[in-house]
Amino acid sequence: MIAPPWPRGRGAWLLPGLLALLALLAARAPGRGAGTPLRDVLDATPRQLPTQPETQLLATVLPWSVWGGNRHGPALAAGHYWSGEPTAQQAVLTAGQSAAFYGQEALDFEVLADPRIGSFITDTPRGPGLGHGDPGVSKPVSLLAVSSPAGPGLLATGPGGVAHWAHGAWHRAPDHPAGAPVLLAQAARSPDDMHLLLFYPSTRLVQVARSTGARFQVHSLHASLPGSAAPRAVAGPGGLFVLWAGPSLMRVVAPAEVGPDTPVPLALEALPHAVEDVFLLSLTGVGPGATDAAIVLASDQLVLCHGIALAGCTEAEVLDLPRWTFGTGTRVLAPPALEHPGPAVHWLYLSNWVLGLLWHLELDPGTRAARHWTPVRVPRAASDHQAQMRVLGLRVGPDQAAWALAAPDAGPAFFLARDFRCDGPAGDPSIRCPGAPGADRGVGYACDAGRDLSPFLRPGHLCAGCAAGMEALPSDGPLPECAACPAPCQACVGGRCVLCPTGSPLRQLPDGSTACGAECPPGTAAGAGSRCLPEYPALHLDVSFRPMGAPGFPGPGRLLARTRLLVHDGQVYLSPAEAPASAMVVFLEEADARPVWLPAEDGPAGPWAPLPAGLFAMGPVRAFAEAGPLAAYCTEAGALWVRRYECAGPASPGTGACPLGLPPETMLQAAGCTELRPLGPGLVSVLWQDRAHVLRLGPAGQAELLPQAPGSARHPALARPTPRSDPWLLLLAGKPRIDGSPASSTDPDPRLSFLPVGLHLARDSRALLFDSAVAGPPQELPPWAEPVVVAVADPAAPAGPGAQEIFVSGIRPTGGAFLWEVAHLPAGAAPHWRTVGASASRELLGRLPAGALAGAVPDPGAQRVVALDLAPGPGAPAGDRFPAALALITHRAVGLAVVHCSPAGPPPGPGAAEWCRLLPARFFSLPVPAEHPRRVDLLPVPAPPGALARVRLLLPGLAEPLTLEVRQAPACPAGTYAPDCRGCDAGCRACRGPGPGDCTACAAFLPDAPDACLASCPEGLFPDPAGDGACRCHPSCARCEPAPAPGTGYRCVECPAGGLVPASPHRCAPCHDICRGCDAPGDPGQCRACARPDLVLLGGACEPACPSTHVPVPLQEGGPASELLCVPRMAGCLVPKPDGTCATCEAGYHAVAGVCRPCHVSCQSCQDAASCEVCQPGLVFLSAESATPSLCGGTCAPGEYVGAGRCAACDASCELCAGGPDRCQCLPGRVVQQRRVVPAVRRVLRHLRRWHGQPVHGLWPGAGAC
Hints:
By secondary structure, the protein is mainly beta. The protein has a domain at about 975-1055. It is about 5% helix and about 40% strand. The protein contains five helices and 101 strands. A six-stranded mixed sheet has the order 21-22-23-24-1-27, with no helix packed on it. The two termini are about 85 Å apart.
């Protein structure tokens, strides 16, 4: 029985009577409603509802918010802060006492209609932030976002009280003698007008307060909260507050105006059971009295209180919970009444995160009666956040919202299976939903057999792609058919393997087919373990440089770029938008010089011409790009200028060109612009402040610099993930780094991803979160990488899977040298349709010549990679093509790697699938160094007959641009150099001349001296399997070093752990398969441990079990029970050790040097052979001194008697004694003489006894002598 909250004794009747009168008046007051008290409601018999089959929550692919998972960042909250809207918002509450709010406005369902992707919340704040400065509540400060019809409000709580952000400033609640209050609940009419429910723990006083910023009005309730339990409270519409602690439940209605004398109606009830949770929601409808309450009691009952008011419930229903084990911590999850005033919902969740339970309760929409319970399986992805989960309205269509569960701070959103397209006409056949074999319990679903996640590709199909090792084949439906590749291929084209697992390089067989294998065939070498590259390319290139040949050119120039502008007779024209830009513009070194226009044709036939003054702002230009009608350039100061090309007159009927108009330029950014790249029609990639952004023309024709491509530090590219899809952005996200440099949370490892262009242009929040397109660890991408898309489609054939090849090119430092590496996605995503988790091969194209880079470490400006189209050349094998090449530009060299395409399988011919791959690169020295390689572009011009390609480029200091011409050189065999195919030096594997300094690849070299080429590796060293000529330890050896004797080569000094042992001075050999570590290679009787947990080690052999003479013990003391060793059985040993000794002996034994020896027969247990710890029953210790170890016996030595547990000495007057020291006995032949003691002597002896505390033996009666 809860004691009343008012004092007993004199005047005790006044307050209860007053409260009863107030409650009665309040119950009859307009708007307060009449109803049944909860205590009376609980007299009804609880209903037991039927249970439906289990359903499950399913997780979105991405986190529900772009702010999720930032555990070291700002605090997060979620709710319907604009309470009249159907979709939720998120609040980012910072430690600096400020808040920003973000919504779901950025979802563009016309671009991507699938809400199961997630990422509903954008990163653009919705309106200005709230809260600045110190709220004055002492630290630590917690911020609380509050919903209202007019938008969010903000409260701050701390040890010093509560403060309200109103009218642009903090307003703290007034001080109270009871100390600082605890905020229990809050409700807002507007951001500047709030009702608060405050609690003072020291007095258990409850206050209702109203803050309008300018005023903070407070009213103390006349009833303190009974008991000692910590209270909780919830607010509802109309000023309703419900407060509970233990079995006490109080309902308070805050008036519009609050003051010390304002009557505040309240009702306090003592319920028969403790209250676990109260949740106010709208189950009834919209309008006055539409607030309902779901009340969870500790008696495992749920009360649905319809139309809750001060007097109680208009209608009520009491339900038994579906499981009596819900227990403490049960909470209601539903749309809160304050945030969701209508329309009514007809369901709610019960959650107990401690027990991992979640149940869904459904009500009848007409009668409001509860229908049934449905258990809900919580996937692992939700279990860590179940305690923080709440119900949120999320956008699932242009004008649609759906309820989902989500935690404010992290993780995905969770929909019920019925809302996840698991079945029905809109079902997704690419996934397996709950109950299907293989459904993933981590997120609630799994991709169908043979499929993999590809979320953006086909709306309505999460798993449109094929899994690794499967090929996407055409089908009649929206999804491809997934067919298995030859094992163990990771990707295949036309059934031909094009990608192998790491450590099993792809090799081409003599018949032209491909396979994965452990070794490369002769004449090839594994490039970084992914593919066997030919040591000598099938197409040998040669390049030449020469001046362009433009007499009177006003150079030198600083930048060469492509342009749509045409100059004729001094007039500037604009070529048609559909025509590719062919002319060029040169920006000169002289700051005030006008840019120069160049025609596409080479030589004097097309004269240069200066462009009109004012066409571009004066000043040094560092970057220039055009895309459609958009022209952009960056100055050396970093300013970004944009001009929109327009026609000033009608187009010419012959050429389609029109006179150029000059609309005004616009400066979008004053600083930070470093690079520009044309990206697509009307799109330019801008590297601004070390991040890639996309520049486009907006709907009204104005230039817009979109937010950065998500996480991207390099220019994106456009690629088609499937043969007939629209181009997507190919993004390299994360800041690329050199191997060995530490990564940080702000410097993520690089990852390659596909992203629909439309999502990014629409600023869709789903474009802000995306997964890696390249599976595997980050080192699979080379450092300082950038994506390159190469068009390889055969013009004579329709576009097929090989229409595009995707490469990620970079430079990797190693051993004082630099390697040109690429990660290759064969045919892009076309073979498998996967837009996330796509596999890539890592290939070494070649070693850069010495001095090719200006520094010792490559930096972002050290390279530029472009794709060059190649014209058909003579002598190509039947069916083979060389459609393009990658060109790598460094400070002092240019490298070319040809793309070689051949039929992927029969039958060859137009339209057949092709396998395209890169050939080893060849490097050529630049005529003069390129100061900024990333500013150097290779602009193709028409090639003359016999040339594969002709390009223009601009290098610093030259009077005019250069022409670079690529031709097919005569094929020379390996070890010779063109054009006469003369032999290289013995130390060269490839060379450009006869001397040892002309090596472009060493036949052999030591890793610590990569520039010193050797004819072969020293004795004891072997060629690196990567095929670059490095001499290393034998692959089986972990470490080798020079032999002690000079000139005797190297020897292996260390084998890898777990299965290899020395077999010769130079290499290690594997143990027998049954062994895990051994003393002799290949010998099953020389094992140090067994490779299988079901075997035990016996004398070096692995056996199924120990013989009866042995017992199993862990191989290592304290080691796992799965690694056991048989040791001889030792008598008396309780705990044997691996070395055959005993750690603990049984009772009756003692250890001697690890061997258990029997104790003396008198000992029950002993320390050693001469001392007992416990005697056998009926025996005592023979030593009279307790500190002296001894054996045990039944009789004691002469002069001693059997005492309490050990022998004790007799009195000195006794020859023998028994039963006590003074109970003398005599030796045989002698008797005890008794002495008579006179009374006087007895009195003296008595005094002596009192003095000494013991009898004087020999004189006391009973004593005597022999």
